[in-house]
Amino acid sequence: MVSKETRNLYPRRSVLSDETYEMIRNLIIDHEIPAGAKVNIDALSARLNVSPTPVREALARLESDGLIRKVAMKGYTTTDLLTVKELNDLFQLRLLLEPWSAEQAAMQSSQIGQKAIKAEMQSAKLALKLRDMDQVHALTEHDARFHALITEMAGNQSVIESYQHTHCHVHLFRLYLATKNFEAASKGTKGFQKNLHDQIHATLSAPATIKEHELIASAITEGNGKEAKDAMNSHLKLSLKRYSTAARGLEK
């Protein structure tokens, strides 16, 4: 994700389509365009100082990403946040795909794969040294890369594509930020769990999550398929528990 400063710059004409896509994507992910909101092409064009054409192209790409929904005769809207049921459905699919992928990654572990997963864990340690939202963004990106890398190391193209189509980390990050924003707006009022932010923040930035990743990475690099499978299974169940708390809080 690009920095706030970069987001405020107009897109350079040489890479207009890609930068327009990135800017609109960040507006959605950071809830500057709220979930379930109507997206006005002309308003976005004026805001980004571009013609409607790159905006339409960007919206088509964002529809593929699961961030935009196009309704006939009504135009574009941003997709809603995950409900509790959708969150559970997503994790049930991940529990089918990812423990198996971790096991296969360990059994097929190569020097290239081991080097890649060690480098990714090093990026997590560097991310922990950052502060506030810079840390949140960096750890979210690490989390997405880590899980995608393991499915790729498993070597099954159908599994890779199935995982990619979930866009899980994009939706989970939106849920996290919505929770954080809701907590700030609700501070001091009853009806919102006082410790919700602390619980959900652990999903992204607490050392506990990195330790879970380290257990998975260690098992893979050691070629221990069963341990890798069990560690991934445990990690996903803990993540589901943390995110479920957030989703229930938002539905109140």
In short:
It contains 12 helices and 3 strands. It has helices at residues 4-7, 16-29, 41-48, 52-64, 84-107, 111-127, 132-154, 157-166, 168-186, 196-204, 207-221, 225-251; strands spanning 38-39, 68-71, 75-78. Helix 6 (111-127) packs antiparallel against helix 7 (132-154) and helix 7 (132-154) packs antiparallel against helix 8.
CATH superfamily of the largest domain: GntR ligand-binding domain-like
Mean residue pLDDT = 83
**Major sheet: arrangement of strands:** 1-3-2
Rg from C-alpha positions? 19 Å
The biggest beta sheet is recorded as: 3 strands, antiparallel
N-to-C terminal Cα separation, in Å?
30 Å
**Structural class by SSE content:** mainly alpha
**Beta-strand percent range:** under 5%
What does this structure look like?
- There is one protein chain.
- Helix 5 (84-107) runs antiparallel to helix 8, helix 5 runs parallel beside helix 11 and helix 9 packs parallel to helix 12.
- The radius of gyration is 19 Å and the shape is elongated.
- By secondary structure, it is mostly helical.
- A 3-stranded antiparallel β-sheet has the order 1-3-2.
- It has 2 domains: 4-78, Orthogonal Bundle (Arc Repressor Mutant, subunit A); 84-251, Up-down Bundle (Four Helix Bundle (Hemerythrin (Met), subunit A)), CATH 1.20.120.
- It has helices spanning 4-7, 16-29, 41-48, 52-64, 84-107, 111-127, 132-154, 157-166, 168-186, 196-204, 207-221, 225-251, and strands at residues 38-39, 68-71, 75-78.
- It has 12 helices and 3 strands.
